[in-house]
Amino acid sequence: MTVLTVPMAEAGPASLTRRTRVLRRLRRNPLAVVSFVVLALAAVVALLSPWIAPYSVEQTDFGHTFSPPGTPGHVLGTDDLGRDVLSRIMLGARASLEVGLLAVATSLIIGVPLGLAAGYFRAWDAVISRFTDLLLAFPFLIMAVGLAAIRGASLGNAAVAIGIAQIPGVIRVVRSDTLRLKSLDFVAAAVVDGASDLWVLARHILPNATSVILVQATVAIPAAILGEAVLSFLGLGIQPPAPSLGTMLATAQQFAARAPWAAIFPGVVIMILALAFNVFGDALRDALDPKGDR
Amino acid sequence: MIRYLLRRAWQSALTLLLSTVVVFLGVRALPGDPALALAGEDRSPEALEAIRHHYGLDQPLPLQFAQYVERAVQGDFGVSIRTGTPVSSMLTTALPVTAELSVLAILIAAVLGVGAGVLAAVRRGHPAEWLANGLALVGLSVPHFWLGLLAILYLSVATGLFPASGFVPLLQDPVDNLHHIVLPAVILGTGLAAIIMRQTRSAMLDSLSSDYVRTAKAKGLRPRAVITRHALRNSLIVVVTIVGLQLGGLISGAVVTEQIFGLPGFGKMTIDAVFQRDYPVIQAVVLLTAMAYIVINFFVDLLYSVIDPRIRVTGDPA
C-alpha cells in the first residue's frame, strides 16, 4: 500500500498548495498583473468586437478617406477607403488571437503526445527526432507558403502552418520534462505497482508536465500572432476585405506617407498583444520555478 | 570523436534525403497540371503528351524522383515557368544579396545580444538590467516588418538619410551597397538580438551561480576574467546554438525584410514565385532552404563538440 500513496501524494495536496503558491507569486508581481489585465481586456474586446465596434469593418465612406485620428466619429482615423481604423483594429485583434490560440492548439495536440513518446520510449526517440529535424528544416514561412499553395490562403490554413512549425518546440520541452519525470521515484513506484505505460504517461507524467507545457504555450501564442501578421502582410494569411492587423499594415504601406496612422496603430496593437503574452509568460515561468525568486 | 561525427553526418544525410522526398511529393501535390502550364497555347492531347514525355512526367514516380535528384545534384533546378530563365542563374543573383543581409544582421544581433545578455546577468538589480530585459521583451514582441515600415517612413522618406528601397551589388559600389543594406540589416538584426540576449542572460545566470565560478572568484581572479574566461565561455554553447539556428532560418526569415526594402534577394524570389505559381522555382527554393538549415545545423553540432568536449563522448549537449 505504501507504494500507492507516493503517487497520490505527488498529485494530491502537494500540487494544491503549489497552485496557490504559484498564484500568490503571480499576484505579487506587478508585471504579471498588468499583462494579465491587458490580455483580459483584449480578450473581452475581441470576443465582443462584432457588436461593440463603432462601424462595420467593410463599410466604406469615400467622402471621408484619410481622416486623421481624433476626427469626430473616427477616434483612430480612417483608411484609404474611408473605413474606420478602430473598428478594423478590433476585429483584426480578434483574428490575431484566434490564430494564436488555433496555432498553439495545433502544436500541442500533435507535439505533446510525440514529446511524451520520445521521452518515455527509447525506441521512438530516434524516429521522432528525425521527424523534428525534418520539421525544423522547413521554416514556418515555407510551410505556410506550401499550405497556401495547396489549400489556399485563409485564417485557418495560416494557423495550421504556424502550428505545425511550432511542433518541434513543443516536442523538445515535453520530451526533456518526460525524461526528468521518468527518473523520479513516484514514476518508478507506479511502474513497480504494475501500472501500464499508458497509465503512467497519462496519470503521472502528463499532469506533472503541465507547467512546462503552459509556459511553452504562452511564448508560442505571441510568436503565432507575429507569424499571422507576417503571413497576412505577404498576402498568404487572412484575405481582404476581412480585417487582419497584418493585411491592414500591407495596405497602409502603400499610402503610409499620407496616412501614417493607418500604418502605426495596427502595429502598436500587435506589439501590445505580443508583449502582454511575453511578459505574462515570463512571470508565469518565474512563478512556476521551484527555485523561487530568482 | 570520429564516431560522433559519422553519426551526426548520417543523421543529417537522412534528414536531407527525407526533406528532398517531402519537397518532391509536396510540389506534385500542388494543384494544377505542370504539363498544362508548360504547354501554353497548344493544348492538344498530343502536345501535352509530348511535354509529359519530354519532362519525364510520364515515368513512374520513383524514377522521376531519381532523375530529379540527379539533376539537382548537378545544380540543374530546371527553368522558371514564368521567365524561362534557368532557376540556377536566378539563384546566383539572389543568393549573394540574402547572404550579405543575413551575415550583417547576425553580426549586429550577436554583438548586441551577447553584450546586453552579459550586462543583464552581471548587473543584477541595476537599472541596466531592467533596461536590457525590457528592450529584449519589446524586441521579441514587435513585428519587425512594421519597424521596417516605420524606418522607411521616418528615416528614408522624411529625412532622406537612407534609400527607401533597391540594391546595389557589393562589387559594383561597396559604399552605396552598404548604404542600401544597413537599415534592413539593423531591423532584421535587432529582432534576432532579443532572442540571443535572453538566452545569453539565462545561460550566464546559470554559470555565474556555478561552483567553478565561485572557485575562480575565490582564487582571486579579476571579475572581468571570471566573467569572460569562465562564465561566458561556458555560456557560449547556448549562444552558438541560437545563432546557428537563426542563420539557418534567415535564408527564408529575411523574406519580409527583403520584401519591404525591395531587396532582390532569395526571399523576394520566393514570394514572387509563390504568387506566380512558378513551381520549379518554388521547388528549388524550398529544397535549398531545407538544405541550408540541415548543413548549418551539422556545423553547429561540430562546433559544439569543439566548445564542450563532453559532447563528443555522450553525444548530447550537457
From TrEMBL, chain A:
Protein name: ABC transporter permease
Stretches assigned to the ABC transmembrane type-1 domain: 93-281
PROSITE patterns referenced in this protein's UniProt entry, alphabetically: ABC_TM1
Keyword Transmembrane helix annotated: yes
Name of a matching Pfam family: BPD_transp_1
Record's bilayer topology term: Multi-pass membrane protein
Gene3D superfamilies registered for this protein in UniProt: MetI-like
Transmembrane segments: 31-53, 99-121, 133-150, 156-174, 212-238, 259-280
GO cellular component: plasma membrane
CDD domains to which the protein is assigned, alphabetical: TM_PBP2
PANTHER family found in the cross-reference section: OLIGOPEPTIDE TRANSPORT SYSTEM PERMEASE PROTEIN APPC (PTHR43386), PEPTIDE ABC TRANSPORTER PERMEASE PROTEIN (PTHR43386:SF25)
Compartments where located: Cell membrane
Keyword field: Cell membrane, Membrane, Transmembrane, Transmembrane helix, Transport
Family statement drawn from the similarity comment of this UniProt entry: Belongs to the binding-protein-dependent transport system permease family.
TrEMBL record, chain B:
InterPro entries: BPD_transp_1_N (IPR045621), MetI-like (IPR000515), MetI-like_sf (IPR035906)
Domain of life (superkingdom): Bacteria
Key word Metal-binding present: no
Location of the protein in the cell: Cell membrane
SUPFAM superfamilies per the UniProt record, alphabetical: MetI-like (SSF161098)
Keyword Flavoprotein attributed: no
Ranges where the ABC transmembrane type-1 domain occurs: 95-300
Similarity comment: Belongs to the binding-protein-dependent transport system permease family.
Name of the molecule in the record: Peptide ABC transporter
Organism: Micromonospora sicca
